[in-house]
Design goal:
Helices cover about 45% and strands about 20% of the residues.
Amino acid sequence: MIKDMEIVPIWDSMGQPSIKAVVKTEDGVFSASSPNLVTGKNEFRFLDSNSAVKKFQEVKNNFIGTDEHSYDIVDDKLNKIGFNNIGANVSAAISKACVKAGGHGRGYNLINPQANRFPVPMAAIFSGGKHGGYCSIKNFFVIPRVGTVYDAVNENYKFWKDMGEILKKRGMILGRSSEGGWIVHFTDLKTLEFLSHHAGQRNLGIGLDFGGSELYKNGRYVYEKIGQKLDGGEQLEFIRQMVQKYHISYIQDPFNPNDFTKFAELKKKLRIPVIGGELYASQPTRFKKGLNYSSTSGISLKMEQAATVSRIVRLVDNAREAGQITVLSDQENETEDDFLADLAVGAGVDVLRYGVSGSEHISKINRLLEIWYDVSSRGKPEMAMPGI
């Protein structure tokens, strides 16, 4: 039973004020945190840390006395209060903390007591767009094709480190993004050429997150460093050729997040997954619209967009029923909270997208490894095979 609960201010990896939920039960004290984000019109409102603390005091008594094992009841209370009212960041932190409390350190097991399926870890190797540098594409990923979580994570880190060493010797490294990806002195196509060559030698898949909303300016998709300004049809053909030439196996958010039709057109042209992240903003109504248009092959979800664990789990279930690939992603600015790994395993997602450096990102991967060995001690864990 929840005896007490508090919201306290903290800071995230970008030095932004954020919040932590602290839940006290008869079995101990459990906490979870959420970063503070700038949200778009398709997302719930976030509250700054001072407003969050004040607002929580108004609704705190709704949760005292609730059974922490029944996280869906807690989530229902949050839904009734209203995510825009309490703030999606506050709601997410409370929801996560209650699952931690109810699971007694095994949050994944509370979500699904039979959980034994692990996501493929997909790591950002290079970054562009608003991160800086000469690339307009937001993130370039590698996708390992090996048998255990440890082997997959090890492949990602070895590749990331090796690429950094090669490019440092050439004087091509400009820095690292908030997700740990190298910011390089290459343009988009040169980066893809380099990545395709080295990833191919190691049997690693390549994934791209275009960040369509950032590329889309005044009706065109703008690749500033290569002097390209493309309309929707030209962007589609540009991506089709890119996929063919550089052996890309995963595409996310190639168009602006309101162009369901163009997503669907690209999906028909490609034999690889086309994933909607910005397109859906982890919102069930938008995902339903995407299914009606046959816009994508999968959905990329973020905990703080969905606002509760229950909403993530339902979206994953709905996506699975629709034959869609499910991706769970951390945020660009993060906290050291490691619950994302529990959520990934408990919900049974196909891919865990993570930042490759910084303790705020690595905490999730280290927790995923802990869960792998925990499950291994009681049965046989399995790796998801999402076909990418």
